[in-house]
Write a structure and sequence with these properties.
alpha+beta, five-stranded antiparallel sheet, single chain, 400 residues, seven-stranded mixed sheet
């Protein structure tokens, strides 16, 4: 029996028994050729650029292939393992920035071709803008607040930008990440992915900022840091975050297991309805269209009372009901009834404000507001009946 016949029989048996090809056959049959071309913005080839081909299966990288572009800006890899479920992209590192191609399926029998554009670095102008700046404060300790701060920065220029303050080695920083003075344990966060996260070895950490040495590519960059704000001896922590660039949108979110023990005061941000992250509600404040040099200002610290806002609102409603009962016990005294009604109206208005600010969820809000309105209607009926009875008796309202 020839070698070809034996191989064919082996493949047939493998398919019949397992439904799959043996590994050796996969390696022999399922491979493709991949070519990448690296170009500058004017279309000229970029020579000597380190290029990496990443093949992944949707959950992890299964193989990497590295090379350097030739005089034509090209790299070719032969016999790259292929499978229908595999995808690939090419990354080219140029002037301190990694630029990626689009993603393609590494299908058996179909050779691939990638184009990657790279850009020179400039330091003039002011092309950076903050699209979003988010501060998410997690409170699991009433005196230590863990902050995740992440920014989406847009580069409106046509080249990579590194025109920030000088680093200790004389280079210009690509990006300035502002910090509030007093921030402790500042560190990089794995956002948007561990591979694209802030490189601490290529960054300089100061008391009120982090300088990211990487130039910002034309499409922009996302970057994140985490840090702690600490209340000393139970005192509130003043926060001032100076914006190095114009910002389209800023948000502050507050949540955590003991968030009710903490309050935000003296804020220049506007309160908004609460947002849900996972299974937790986070109080929300926002600001929009801020100029460079503007400051995000607020104070965070232990609440002046240990009861939550919802508890105080409930106490207010209960006190109004007590006054209403007192009006009845005083034999229909109009003065007590009118006081009770005023308190109920004020408490309903306060409850409305708390709900609008996102500090009372909708279910609790409608339940308590409905109970308060019922009490108001009952009180109005009592007051109306007594007013009618006193008018008929010839006594003036409010007199005994």
């Amino acid at each position: 029996m020839s070698h070809a016949c034996r191989l064919g029989r082996l493949l047939l048996i493998s398919i019949l028994l397992t439904g799959t090809l043996p590994p050796a056959a996969i390696a022999q049959a399922a491979s493709v050729s991949v070519t990448a071309t690296v170009n500058l913005p004017d279309g000229a080839p970029a020579e000597g650029v380190p290029v990496v081909l990443e093949v992944h299966d949707g959950t992890q990288i299964v193989s990497e292939h590295r090379a350097t572009s030739d005089r034509a800006g090209k790299v070719t890899w032969q016999r790259v393992p292929a499978a229908v479920a595999h995808h690939a992209r090419v990354g080219a590192e140029f002037a301190g920035v990694v630029y990626y191609s689009g993603t393609q399926t590494v299908a058996p029998g179909s050779d691939l071709s990638f184009d990657v554009g790279v850009f020179p670095v400039v330091s003039e102008g002011r092309p950076l803008h903050v699209e979003t700046l988010h501060l998410i404060v997690q409170v699991d300790d009433p005196q230590r607040y863990k902050v995740l701060q992440f920014m989406t920065v847009i580069n409106t220029g046509e080249a990579a930008f590194a025109g920030g303050p000088e680093l200790s080695d004389g280079r210009r920083a690509g990006l300035v990440i502002p910090l509030p003075p007093g921030a402790e344990s500042v560190r990089a966060a794995p956002f948007p992915s561990p591979e694209d996260a802030l490189d601490e070895a290529e960054s300089e950490f100061g008391s009120d900022r982090v300088l990211d040495a990487r130039p910002v590519p034309p499409e922009g960059r996302q970057v994140a840091v985490t840090y702690d704000l600490v209340s000393k001896n139970g005192e509130p922590v003043p926060v001032r975050l100076a914006l190095p660039y114009p910002a389209q949108s800023v948000s502050l979110m507050l949540g955590g297991s003991v968030a009710d023990a903490v309050e935000i005061t003296e804020s220049m941000l506007e309160p908004r309805p609460a947002e849900k992250i996972g299974d937790q509600d986070y109080a929300l404040w926002t600001a929009e269209a801020l100029q460079p040099g503007s400051e995000i200002v607020f104070t965070i610290g232990p609440a002046r009372h240990r009861l939550s806002t919802q508890t105080w609102a409930l106490i207010g409603l209960c006190s109004s009901l007590v006054l209403a009962m007192a009006a009845s016990l005083h034999g229909g005294n109009m003065r007590y009834g009118e006081q009770a009604r005023d308190h109920l109206v004020q408490d309903v208005a306060e409850l409305d404000r708390e709900h609008q600010a996102g500090r009372v969820d909708s279910g609790e809000y409608f339940r308590r507001r409905g109970a308060a309105i019922e009490s108001l209607l009952l009180l109005d009926q009592q007051l109306g009946g007594r007013l009618q009875a006193r008018t008929k008796s010839g006594r003036r309202p409010g007199r005994r």
